[in-house]
Design a protein that fits this description.
The chain is an alpha/beta fold and 242 residues long. The chain is built from 10 helices and 7 strands.
């Protein structure tokens, strides 16, 4: 399967996804859970793989001002936005399935990316090359909806599949969080499937921000032990080379 083209990602970041990432309830919870995972870690640099317009790095810098920020994305438009929002960061346009940076960061984050990458095994090996201490991944698992295919998903992981692939790619898995039942998945995802995810992109006005805030608060009731959104904290095991 093939995901979206680079041009399609550029178009999405130019006129559809910015407010969704900033105000959307799902995106906000992704950042909340990632920060919960990151807080105990001893790190001084972070690389956001698939950084988009920089919303995650912006929040990380607010809470962890000592972190040296780096970011890569397949979209030139996204990287340009990220450079504006995180002026002290270093950013590159890059396809994680094709190449790596010749640097290692204490923390590498790959959030909502692997489901878009046809060769995720190669992407994981490239991530391993850039990970100094820790890797954190978030990605969906379970049944893929049609609206997810339309935004470039080529897979949703089966339970346990991502952990097995990480271990085969030279990582030791430290912890796993499964989140989202029942209000995000299946209820919210089924709603997006029925509506074709209408109303989630473009500019958010006052009413949409209020609705998003309500859904965000509702999502606080989701289980953190069961759900179709998986977060994995791993570290390079140093025993495997490619």
């Amino acid at each position: 399967m093939v995901g979206m083209s680079k041009a399609a990602y550029d178009q999405g970041w130019q006129n559809k996804w910015d407010d969704m990432k900033k105000y959307g309830p799902f995106s906000r919870h992704i950042r909340r859970i990632l920060k919960n995972i990151i807080r105990p870690l001893d790190i001084s640099s972070t690389l956001d793989v698939g950084c988009g317009q920089g919303s995650l790095l912006t929040e990380l810098k607010e809470e962890f001002p000592h972190l040296e920020p780096f970011g890569i994305d397949i979209s030139k438009a996204a990287v340009e936005l990220a450079r504006q929002r995180v002026p002290d960061g270093q950013f590159w346009v890059m396809d994680i399935a094709q190449e790596t940076l010749h640097i290692k960061c204490d923390l590498v984050i790959c959030s909502e990316v692997l489901e878009h990458v046809p060769d995720d095994n190669l992407a994981l090996r490239n991530l391993q090359e850039m990970t100094g201490k820790y890797l954190v991944i978030s990605t969906p698992q379970g049944r893929m909806r049609e609206f997810e295919k339309q935004v470039g998903h080529v897979r949703n992981y089966a339970p346990g599949e991502l952990v097995r692939k990480l271990e085969a790619s030279g990582f030791d898995v430290v912890s796993v969080v499964e989140w989202g039942f029942p209000f995000y998945s299946p209820l919210y995802r089924e709603f997006l499937e029925l509506t074709g995810s209408k109303g989630t992109t473009g500019e958010f006005g006052h009413v949409r921000k209020l609705i998003s805030r309500f859904i965000y608060l509702l999502f606080l009731l989701n289980s953190s032990r069961h759900g179709d959104e998986i977060f994995v904290l791993a570290r390079p095991n140093k025993r495997q080379s490619f």
